[in-house]
Design the sequence.
């Protein structure tokens, strides 16, 4: 039988999603629910001097208006709560869009009307919102979740001094916002001292933990439910203040409260990718051997938090170079706390991959050859091999399919009529984390299996892939297996971020399913009514819901037969901690540029990745397609604009913040090396974030090839090419 | 005010509707039909697309009161029981669904396109779906789904 794992089966939750039957947090129906809304600050720095809620309180239907003077006191949770403070606890304003009041009313309109009538007076102080506003204020933040902010290997100065050719350039990218299509939502329902949160979160367990800390209640009094999530991309991985506030006001009022952030509020309430600037200096010998990589970055931090996520690991994990210096500086500005956004290691790689393209031109060397010359799979930190990495194979798979060998490297050399054609490439790389997870599998007397794990499906396909993993481990058809997630009553798992879900959860699900299978086999061999009675358990295999003797397939039983004779369901659990790792790939891009209008179209993209064993070719491919369009947005359209005088976001909406649309999508081909990772029971590596990481550089490199213009400040909008 | 409206063939009534209230709010919060999604509240994303008298609209931009005496068809009304519409089936089979939040609006918009243009060209598909934003799929599979649905409807056997 061909294995279920890897097969491009359609999503098991597809039916629910195309019929409107999938229930997201804001879809939850709770009798007697009341509606919350946030009033937010209009200054970025200062204090509230007076706040008058008289008119707001008088709006019909208004149940309560909470300000920093009347809000129940909450505890500021420790890290990983990303904010450093809880709003509505004092008069200090740390950023524009900070909640200054929480209104609860019978209907949303009433709450919104009341929020608009709150009269807030401030003592405002001058605010800084751009890196350029704070020259000289950058500092080296303390070590973060991914280690120290500075990495030195060898003698970078000597490496640069000895280089035959050098590139020294500054690259920059603006603030980005995740913009999942679902805005964040919380429905808080108290029953006595028990809280149920219907939450749009990438981490039900973190939500449970952080809310418990903020409210000073035992964690086990809180149940968090997220059966479906309308995208997150990192914005819903941390727990943000609106969740804590909603839980607190619902407790105070003894009424269920529903809060759905507006699209505009999503721009100040759930993190963003920080403005990022990096100086990259690379040097190489005549034959292209790298002599030094120096990658010094600076990024925005908030006044209340200094964790850095845009890690520069790619500076030492991809290319073997004897002299490396990576440093991640930060600068505190009067903006909300930035946080990880799909592929936080992308920004540091973008500059490096653009610099390597520049270096290839300095050397007169093909950019693919330059990367192959320097590729490594040894970690210079410890000299150990970095898991299984097949960057050369990715470069070959994608490069051959793209037709890279036909490229004339001279800029402006390829045309189609009036249009300039450019071909560019870049390496892609992202690490994936380790998280412990546990799962539970039950085989019922009807021969059906139910698997449960407190993980999430953020749109990537957890429901589907874990159904495949369960079915394969049990030896059952997929339609006999049901996989459930998104409930803190299930065995716990980590967050669905940092490309961790598949590599972590597949291990525990596989283990639990195998333990359940083995328990059923044990029942069969002990059961005098079973044709398998007395057989050695290790001679029994399971397929299609049946148990066979390996050397005599006429002796068989079924899950249904064994478990129904047993008279009660068989259950088992499994736990697993995955090994963190590093995933690489390569993307090749074709752009067409209108030389008169500066208009860029990405017309063709070919990418290849080593993601270990492919769990489902359909959902894995979807990660590539989605990542590619994110790369297009990063390179060409996405830019959160912040007015430096008012410190306000100018485009907090989907008409001003340009998420790529249908017509921006290129033709995309995706390839996978598809070799099992030995550290995973099912061979899976983490993957979701590796696509994107190199795409902005590949697009920029292609634009250089098309036009001869090296644009180092993203996004590359039309004005920059005129 | 009271609004009487036919939704997915059923006569429905909503009371205490505020004059400024959107059709989307009435569907989701008063009538128990949360399939249509609220994602931008200003007609930019298409996630709330429904039929109003056979014309696709953003339900967030239509006042609930405007629907008095009219017919609304939502994503919940496209399938006949468990029997999915070809557009819905194609979205599942082509892998056009990821997180699923934009899907209800896209399914209605694609359904409308194929009623008007049974065999659309790629530019026609892109134009028709230009008002529906998706952050997960990269759009390619959505185009595949519409092409697949068009083929199915053209074959006739599955059209309804």
Sequence:
């Amino acid at each position: 039988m061909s294995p279920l794992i890897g097969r491009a089966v359609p999503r098991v939750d597809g039916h629910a999603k195309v019929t409107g039957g999938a229930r997201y947090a804001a879809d939850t129906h709770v009798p007697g629910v009341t509606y919350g809304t946030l009033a937010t600050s209009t200054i970025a720095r200062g204090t509230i001097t007076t706040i008058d809620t008289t008119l707001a309180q008088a709006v019909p239907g208004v149940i309560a208006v909470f300000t920093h003077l009347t809000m129940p006191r909450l505890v500021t949770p420790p890290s990983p709560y990303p904010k450093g403070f809880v709003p509505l606890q004092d008069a200090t304003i740390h950023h524009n869009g900070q909640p200054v009041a929480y209104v609860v009313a019978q209907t949303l309109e009433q709450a919104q009307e009341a929020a608009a009538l709150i009269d807030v007076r401030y003592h405002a102080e001058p605010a800084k919102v751009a890196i350029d506003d704070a020259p000289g204020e950058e500092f080296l933040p303390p070590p973060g979740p991914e280690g120290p902010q500075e990495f030195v290997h060898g003698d970078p100065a000597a490496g640069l001094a000895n280089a035959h050719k050098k590139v020294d350039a500054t690259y920059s990218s603006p603030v980005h916002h995740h913009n999942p299509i679902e805005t964040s939502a919380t429905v808080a329902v108290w029953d006595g001292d028990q809280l149920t949160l219907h939450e749009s979160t990438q981490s039900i367990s973190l939500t449970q933990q952080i809310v418990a800390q903020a409210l000073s209640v035992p964690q086990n009094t809180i149940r968090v439910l997220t059966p479906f999530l309308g995208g997150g991309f990192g914005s819903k991985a941390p727990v943000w203040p609106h969740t804590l506030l909603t839980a607190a006001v619902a407790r105070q009022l003894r009424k269920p409260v529903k809060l759905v952030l507006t699209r505009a509020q999503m721009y100040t309430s759930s993190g963003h990718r920080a403005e990022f600037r990096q100086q990259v200096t690379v040097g190489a010998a005549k034959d292209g051997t790298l002599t030094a990589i120096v990658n010094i970055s600076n990024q925005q931090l908030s006044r209340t938090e200094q964790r850095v996520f845009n890690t520069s690991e790619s500076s030492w994990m991809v290319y073997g170079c004897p002299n490396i210096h990576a440093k991640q500086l930060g600068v505190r500005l009067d903006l909300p706390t930035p946080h990880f956004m799909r592929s936080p290691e992308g920004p540091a790689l973008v500059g490096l991959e653009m610099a390597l393209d520049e270096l290839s031109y300095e050397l007169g060397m093909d950019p693919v050859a330059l990367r192959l010359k320097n590729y490594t799979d040894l970690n210079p930190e410890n000299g150990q091999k970095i898991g299984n990495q097949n960057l050369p194979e990715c470069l070959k798979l994608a490069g051959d399919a793209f037709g890279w060998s036909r490229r004339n490297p001279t800029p402006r050399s390829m045309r189609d009529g009036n249009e300039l054609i450019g071909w560019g490439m870049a390496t892609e790389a992202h690490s994936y984390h380790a998280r412990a997870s546990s799962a539970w599998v039950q085989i019922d007397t009807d021969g059906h299996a139910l698997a449960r794990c407190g993980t999430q499906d953020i749109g990537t396909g957890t429901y589907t892939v874990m159904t495949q993993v369960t079915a394969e481990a049990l030896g059952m058809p997929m339609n006999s297996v049901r996989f459930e997630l998104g409930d803190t009553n299930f065995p716990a798992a980590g967050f669905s971020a940092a490309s961790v879900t598949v590599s972590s959860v597949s291990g525990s699900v596989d283990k639990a399913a195998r333990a359940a299978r083995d328990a059923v086999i044990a029942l069969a061999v002990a059961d005098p009514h079973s044709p398998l009675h007395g057989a050695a358990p290790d001679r029994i295999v399971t397929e299609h819901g049946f148990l066979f003797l390996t050397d005599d397939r006429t002796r068989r039983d079924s899950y249904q037969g064994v478990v129904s004779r047993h008279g009660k369901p068989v259950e088992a659990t499994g736990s697993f901690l995955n090994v963190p790792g590093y995933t690489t790939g390569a993307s090749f891009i074709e752009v067409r540029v209108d030389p008169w209008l500066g208009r860029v179209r990405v017309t063709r993209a070919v990418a290849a990745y080593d993601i270990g064993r492919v769990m489902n070719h359909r959902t894995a491919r979807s990660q590539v397609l989605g990542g590619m369009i994110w790369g297009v947005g990063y390179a060409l359209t996405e830019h959160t604009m912040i007015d430096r005088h008012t410190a306000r976001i100018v485009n907090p909406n989907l008409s001003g913040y340009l998420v790529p649309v249908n017509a921006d999508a290129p033709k995309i081909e995706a390839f996978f090396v598809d070799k099992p990772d030995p550290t995973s029971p099912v061979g899976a590596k983490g993957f979701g974030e590796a696509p994107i990481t190199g795409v902005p550089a590949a697009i920029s490199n292609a634009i250089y090839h098309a036009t001869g213009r090296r644009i180092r400040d993203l996004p590359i909008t039309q004005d920059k090419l005129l | 005010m009271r609004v009487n409206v036919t939704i997915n063939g059923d006569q429905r009534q909503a009371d205490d509707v505020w004059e400024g209230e959107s059709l989307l709010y009435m569907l989701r919060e008063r009538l128990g039909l949360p399939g249509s999604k609220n994602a931008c509240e200003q007609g930019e994303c298409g996630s709330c697309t429904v039929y109003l008298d056979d014309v696709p609209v953003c339900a967030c931009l239509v006042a609930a009161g405007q629907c008095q005496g009219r017919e609304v068809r939502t994503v919940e009304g496209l399938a006949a029981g468990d029997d999915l519409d070809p557009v819905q089936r194609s979205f599942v089979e082509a892998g056009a669904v990821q997180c699923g939040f934009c899907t209800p609006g896209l399914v209605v918009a694609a359904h409308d396109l194929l009623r008007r243009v049974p065999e659309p060209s790629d530019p026609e598909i892109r134009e028709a779906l230009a008002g529906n934003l998706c952050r997960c799929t990269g759009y390619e599979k959505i185009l595949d789904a519409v092409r697949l649905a068009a083929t199915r409807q053209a074959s006739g056997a599955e059209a309804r």
